[in-house]
Amino acid sequence: PIDESFERAVKKSFYKKIFILERLEFKKDYARTESKKEVEELGKLLEKAYEDLSLPIIKVPKMSVGKRVKFILDNLWKWKYQLCCLGIDCRIIGPCDWLIELNERN
């Protein structure tokens, strides 16, 4: 079952898509206190919770940061195009080419 506070928070939000990034190689460090197994379990629980709320999940594959950004933005542009086709003002979503270029260099 979904935690009620999580469900309320998600329903109050304006989620149209959920991007789940495929995990990179696991490295435990000062900031990561979870074990690899705990990280995997948490990922499965989050994905299941979003599925149970009927939110569309898009899985982002392993690739460079720049390519992940481009993958996500490409999916957002598709959503923007669909909104524009419905007559919704899309000017609130601006171009992010500079962000892609910056990340491609790294």
State the main characteristics.
single chain, mainly alpha, two-stranded parallel ribbon, flat
Provide structural commentary.
The protein has 106 residues and is mainly α. It has 4 helices and 2 strands, in the order αβαβαα. A two-stranded parallel ribbon has the order 1-2. The longest helix is centred in the last third of the chain and has 21 residues. It is flat and about 35 Å long.
Number of strands: 2
Order of strands, widest sheet: 1-2
> Tally the helices: what do you get?
4
How much helicity do the residues have?
A: 40-55%
Query: What structural category do the secondary elements indicate?
Result: mainly alpha
Kindly provide the radius of gyration, computed on alpha-carbon positions and rounded to a whole number of angstroms: 17 Å
Return residue spans where pLDDT drops below 50 for at least 5 consecutive residues.
Answer: 97-103
- Give the overall form: flat
Percent of residues in beta strands: 5-15%
Termini gap: 41 Å
The major sheet is characterized as: 2 strands, parallel
What's the pLDDT, averaged over the residues?
76
- SSE order in H/E notation? HEHEHH
